[in-house]
Design brief:
Blueprint: E1 2-9, E2 12-18, H1 25-42, H2 65-73, H3 75-78, H4 84-94, H5 101-104
Antiparallel strand pairs: 1-2
Length: about 110
Amino acid sequence: MKALAIGGTDDHIHLLLSLPSSLSIAKAMREIKSASSRWMHETAGASAFEWQEGYGAFSIGHAQLQATVAYIAKQEEHHRKRDYRQEFLAFLKKHHVEYDPRYVWG
């Protein structure tokens, strides 16, 4: 996989990845969470660090690439106006993604 953009704030992260067709999103996330958790514990000394159980994954077309990179780069500024939870739910609604609120935040 190739990371095209990475950014976030204290409570979440956005990754724009290019995945080969042979790598599922679930496997990519498992590898990312595992390696980054190991690094946080062993190198950064953040023994209390842990990922949440789930994640959201969305695909984009080539035409949305630059706008998505710019969006990821401006996370701190963006979340001064709307927090992560509000943004995520608005995104699901905007794109007509059905969800059960009981399972969105665990």
